[in-house]
Write a structure and sequence with these properties.
With 259 residues, the protein is an alpha/beta fold. It is 32% helix and 24% strand. It is built from seven helices and nine strands; from the N terminus they run αααβαβββαβββαβαβ. It starts with a helix and ends with a strand.
């Protein structure tokens, strides 16, 4: 159920938000108990195919919603990236520390080599997973034809994932990405965009101009945007700097080609 503008305004107050969440939790618990009794009554009228014991109860109180919720940044940027890699159609694609859904799904139709500071124990055909440090990538200069690093750079140097504290860690990582991409090669780069700031120790948020300047020597073949507001759209293919500059915490998807 959508909230009225009045309720949204009230919820900006942290204490009011706390009370509202407690009230919603009480409602959810009450509904759960009511439906549990209904389910037991329904079970008593039919053949028992499963055990139904109190110790097995597993309350899921936040899933009874009008629409299925999802993280707009991660659902849309992964959908964007898979479409772009399919268009590039490389013999092998290398990914650096993007969300695991991306390399695992992409490996269904393209060979993928995945690297992360905290390596993932993935066991799938067409996919390898190894340790990799974004500030010291294990590739020769100008050697990678198809590369991605998505929703990752903004975290480097903030200590969130056990990496060393470094204010300029993101710039060092970007320098490495630029170094390894082949001439004419592709880099899919995704990061939060909007008003430039650091929300320590979660992430950085960049302006469009910052990203464009950091990747000097690359052509922005496509810039797509996942805006702050659902009302503006889901994934906006071929968006603009002007639209990006109006955002607060949006998701910028850059398809870069090395000149």
């Amino acid at each position: 159920m959508s909230l009225s503008p009045t309720i949204k305004k009230m919820l900006k107050n942290k204490f009011t938000l706390f009370l509202y969440r407690e009230y919603k939790l009480m409602q959810q618990k009450s509904l759960y108990n009511k439906q549990l009794l209904q389910f037991k009554e329904s079970a008593s009228k039919t053949k028992q195919r499963f055990s139904l014991n109190k110790e097995d109860n597993y309350p899921c109180l936040n899933d009874n919603t009008e629409n299925t919720g999802f993280d707009r940044h991660y659902v849309y940027h992964l959908a964007w990236a898979i479409r772009v890699v399919k268009e590039i159609d490389p013999p092998v694609h290398i990914d650096i520390a993007s969300m695991l859904y991306f390399p695992t799904l992409l490996s269904a139709f393209i060979k993928v080599k995945y690297y992360d500071y905290r390596p993932a124990q993935l066991n799938l055909d067409n996919l390898s997973s190894e340790r990799g440090d974004l500030t010291k990538l294990p590739f020769e200069d100008n050697s990678v034809v198809s590369l991605s690093c998505m929703h990752t750079i903004e975290h480097i140097g903030l200590g969130r994932y056990g990496d060393p504290i470094d204010y300029d860690g993101d710039l060092k990582a970007i320098k490495e990405l630029k170094r390894v991409v082949a001439k004419g090669g592709n880099l899919l780069f995704v990061t939060p965009v909007g008003k430039a700031r650091i929300q320590y120790n979660a992430h950085r948020i960049y302006t469009y101009d910052q990203i464009a300047s950091y990747f000097e020597g690359f052509e922005i073949k496509e810039f797509s945007l996942i805006p702050d507001s659902e009302a503006e759209g889901g994934l906006i293919r071929n968006s603009t700097k002007e639209q990006s500059d109006k955002q607060w915490y949006a998701c910028g998807c850059f398809w870069l080609v090395k000149k």
